[in-house]
Amino acid sequence: MALDTVELLMHPVRLRIVQAFLGGRTLTTADLRSELSDVPPATLYRQVATLAENGVLHTVGERRARGAVERSYRLHEAAASVDPDEARAMSPQRHRQAFLTFVAGLLADFDGYLDRGDPDLARDVAGYRQNAFHATDAETAEFVTRFRELFAEYAALGPGPGRTRRLLTTVLLPGADQERPAERR
């Protein structure tokens, strides 16, 4: 049975699997087991199969390993994104559930970072913060476009000597300090 994108990504393990592939990575289930060691293997295999069946992961290679076939997967990013029409159709409760799943995945990533030993946010160029700016809707759209372009430039560099895979997480919300421009009199 095919699941819609929202349903696929609202499952916490499936979301974490998708996030593990970000950055153009090719991974096997053994690689995923190493990265998501807190997830029981049977659950991991089941959720990888669900993502593959629904076109979010696609097989890019196979090899025999210890009598079994080990597949290498890559993420089909367009299939792992909720489009604007799907997002508009979601109820506030579904958005809350989806955001909670997203935040839980973020917490798991941060816990994993801390558990790798000797975390040093300054040395590791890591951090978390919240900033605010004032902008019209048009200025915000321009900001998002320019931000995506800058990110795409760096994402295109890919893995290489001296490069560390970095996770950049964004949440953009209107502040609660004023009315939206359309609501002003």
TrEMBL record:
| Gene3D superfamilies the record matches | 6.10.140.2180, Winged helix-like DNA-binding domain superfamily/Winged helix DNA-binding domain
- Highest taxon above the source species: Bacteria
What the entry lists under InterPro entries is as follows: WH-like_DNA-bd_sf, WH_DNA-bd_sf
Q: What name does UniProt use for this protein?
A: ArsR family transcriptional regulator
